[in-house]
């Protein structure tokens, strides 16, 4: 049988131990209690997921429409939550200005993003042919990407926080026809921009 003295010592020890721990626990260490029933929270999450899927399906349909109407080429990469879109948007030799013939294509692309998945992040990739020095072509490809990005924002209505640019210059691995270059119309297939649409919504 436990003596009264032993019981008092045991209770005192527990009390001291508990009091010793109180300074280690802070209110901010605990998340506030959410009184919403679990079933309701799960239903909300399922609705949000369904809405994202619907938006993504609409985006894919919009890009498929660009393929049919404007000769775009779309590659979907579900593993990385992105798609690569090659539109027939090209540039004159040693120029970065957007051609009038390409503006309707950019308008249709921007409308597809804006209406179907406005949270998508679009990276505009700029390229040149092999004429000129690597340094010059890197600057030129950056100007092409910048001009198209600005057009998508200012005319196409895309969110500026969701539009990026990347210059590739005359990178051999990305040349459509490595043997073709200007001046003139020769090599125009290499003087282009392409687009990466990150539909996972990552802005990091």
| Percent strand | 5-15%
What summary fits the major beta sheet?
A: 5 strands, mixed
Structural class: alpha+beta
Give me the number of helical elements: 4
Distance between the termini: 66 Å
Strand order of the largest sheet: 1-2-5-3-4
Overall form: elongated
What is the helix content? 40-55%
Q: Could you tell me the radius of gyration in angstroms? A: 29 Å
Order of helices and strands: HHEEHEHEE
Query: Low-confidence spans: pLDDT under 50, at least 5 residues?
Result: 1-22
Mean pLDDT: 84
Total strand count, please?
Answer: 5
What does this structure look like?
- The chain is of the alpha+beta class.
- Helices cover 42% and strands 15% of the residues.
- It has four helices and five strands; from the N terminus they run ααββαβαββ.
- The protein has helices at residues 4-21, 38-70, 103-116, 134-154, and strands spanning 73-77, 82-86, 121-127, 163-169, 193-198.
- It has a five-stranded mixed β-sheet.
- Mean pLDDT is 84; it is low at 1-22.
Summarize the structure.
The protein is α+β, with helices and mostly antiparallel strands. Helix content is 42%, strand content 15%. A 5-stranded mixed β-sheet has the order 1-2-5-3-4.
């Amino acid at each position: 049988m436990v003596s009264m003295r032993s019981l008092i010592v045991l209770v005192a020890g527990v009390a001291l131990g508990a009091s010793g721990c109180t300074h280690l626990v802070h209110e901010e260490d605990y998340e506030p209690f959410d009184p919403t029933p679990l079933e309701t929270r799960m239903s909300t999450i399922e609705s949000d997921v369904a809405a994202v899927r619907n938006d993504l399906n609409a985006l894919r349909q919009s890009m498929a429409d660009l393929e049919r109407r404007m000769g775009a080429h779309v590659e979907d990469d579900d593993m990385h939550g992105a798609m690569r879109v090659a539109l027939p948007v090209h540039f004159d030799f040693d120029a970065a200005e957007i051609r009038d013939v390409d503006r309707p294509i950019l308008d249709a692309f921007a409308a597809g993003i804006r209406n179907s998945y406005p949270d998508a992040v679009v990276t505009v990739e700029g390229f040149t042919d092999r004429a000129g020095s690597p340094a010059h072509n890197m600057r030129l490809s950056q100007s092409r990407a910048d001009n198209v990005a600005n057009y998508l924002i200012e005319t196409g209505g895309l969110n500026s926080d969701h539009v990026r640019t990347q210059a590739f210059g005359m990178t051999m691995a990305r040349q459509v026809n490595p043997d073709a270059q200007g001046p003139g119309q020769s090599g125009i297939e290499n003087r282009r921009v392409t687009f990466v649409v990150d539909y996972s919504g990552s802005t990091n």
